[in-house]
Amino acid sequence: MRIKKHPILGELEPGRIVKVEIDDKPVDAFEGEPIAGA
């Protein structure tokens, strides 16, 4: 689950989508987000 609107930070704009591999499986992630968020 990604946070899209934060009560203090306001609207959060995601970065561009990048592909990462976790346990040899491709996963879409947003550039700059922690791996745990992907």
Summarize the structure.
The protein is mainly beta and 38 residues long. The chain is built from no helices and four strands. The protein has a two-stranded antiparallel sheet. It has a two-stranded antiparallel ribbon with strand order 3-4.
The biggest sheet amounts to: 2 strands, antiparallel
Would you list the SSEs in sequence order as H and E? Answer: EEEE
User: What overall form do the CA principal axes indicate?
Assistant: elongated
Measured between the Cα atoms of the first and last residue, the distance is 9 Å
Q: Could you describe the 3D structure shown?
A:
- The chain is mainly beta.
- The chain has one domain.
- The chain has a two-stranded antiparallel ribbon. Strands 3-4 form a two-stranded antiparallel sheet.
- The model has no long low-confidence stretch (mean pLDDT 83).
Topology, pairings included?
Blueprint: E1 5-6, E2 10-11, E3 17-22, E4 25-30
Antiparallel strand pairs: 1-2, 3-4
Keywords:
38 residues; mainly beta; two-stranded antiparallel ribbon; two-stranded antiparallel sheet; 0% helix; 42% strand; elongated
